[in-house]
Model the fold of this input.
Amino acid sequence: MALITRRTEFGLAAVGAVVGLLAGLVVLAMSYMSTLMHRTIFGIEPSARLSSSQFENNLTLLIAPVGGGILLGLLLYVLASKRKRKLVDPIEANALHGGRLSLTDSVLVAVQNIISNGFGASVGLEAGYTQLAAGIASKLGIKFKLRRSDLRMLVGCGAAGAIAAAFNAPLTGAFYAFELIIGSYTIMALTPVVVSALVATLTVRLFASPDFIVSIGEFGAVVPADFVPAILLGIVCSVVGIALMQSVSYVEELARKSSVPPPLRPVLGGVAVGVLGMISPQVLSGGHGALHLNLAQDTAVIALLGLFLLKALASAISIGSGFRGGLFFASLFMGALLGKLFAFSAPYFQEATLTPVIYAIVGMSSLGVAVIGGPLTMTFFALEVTGDFPITALVLAAVITSSFVVRTTFGYSFATWRFHLRGETIRSAHDVGWIRNLTVDKLMRADVKTANADMSVKEFRKVYPLGSTQRVILMDENGKYAGIVLVPEVHGGLVEQDEADKRIVEFVRNRKDVLLPQMNAKQAAALFDETHSEALAVVNNLIEQKVIGQLSESHTLRRYSEELDRRRQEVSGEI
Done:
């Protein structure tokens, strides 16, 4: 089975189907556990949603998030003492680690996400869905000994299945994988990813009735004038999305600068979320019920604006204080509220025919793409939740506008913004890990020729006659790197009587220019270009400067070019 999987497209499609099945089961299991916790902790009806329920005892709304913060804080305390490495998410795994995800870490993320959502923190379960499904897919790919490109694709299959199952939207799941997890669309990845998304969706439909269906009713024909407010709404959503992402970072920065220990931060965050929940229960958890509630009824401007601000604040506090989750569904919910708010400007667009619900759909997708990224993902999301092509055209115009404004003014999605704050340079899941893995210590030659820097030219010529080698690395009396000399240059231009008066150190080059073993090929190529050198010595570190090898520019560029060509072939489906 492992051999078939590695060698045939059919094998990859079959594994994609298995991953889709497992992703669907992950979504079902996590959803069931979250719903069970909502019923048990908050006492809601079996068919009700937490964010759309009414509560007589508001004290529960305060106590529950605090209890969740205590439980999560204890878990974080235990993990901090036992696990020193940071948790890796699917985007980072595919960008830097060739699709390798720790299943144990993925389970831990899912557990933290369930605790956070189950106790009412203002986060959705989508982060846990994708993390666990992608972790299972990665484990399966490693078991089958898949190539790097296939393993990355399988991680995308896991994420595609998770999102497709969560929203009853296979196209949304597939393009979520292409745009956000794999980082590119390829013919080779099309079949496994789509199969995974379809199987995951069918799995959820088989065991549970899908409930994420938006009924928009009759709204008439879309006219060209409708695109003007849609594009303006896209611009508004892009600005709000940037503010939302920065507000989360602001809360996190406040928490880091405070004297509050990390395990206690979720407790304080739970208090704040609980207070906001007492004002409006619609800010709790992901917000599925609240979204349907607000789409179905007419609400005053003040109420919509107040709920939007409360949800934004609750989400920022939840994530910033340490609750585990993402802004996927929160951005959809807030986008719908923003769209309905924007609908009150309809009288200023006299030729437009859009209804408040249509503005809500456009706002959902526009704010979603501003925060999450993936313009085609959000376009297909609108198509699948509405089933209407004219609406999809409006959404496409709005999400392209929103995406363009965010990319040109801010440059990050929520996930890559958090990578940036940690010091990572990745902007997407596009595979750059191979560059980091192609390091100097893997490219260099260890069998270098060396000589003492105090040696005379006459002695040097005897030890290294013309033709014996091209370059010799000089070392001082302490064994430190002292430079490079070219053998042909030493043998040329001197008459015999001058040899006794010349020292080899007079021919030295690149006294201060060295490579370090941890440098990657791109950094090495840049240093060759900067120093105009054809070869450089490799030293263990800049303090000891013990020579451990030598690397030439030609070999570096050749290997770099070979790896680039290999990535091109993977993208085009040639390998």
User: Anything to note?
Assistant: Strands lie at 450-452, 471-475, 481-486, 514-515, 535-539, 547-552. The radius of gyration is 29 Å. The chain has a mean pLDDT of 88. The longest helix spans residues 9-42.
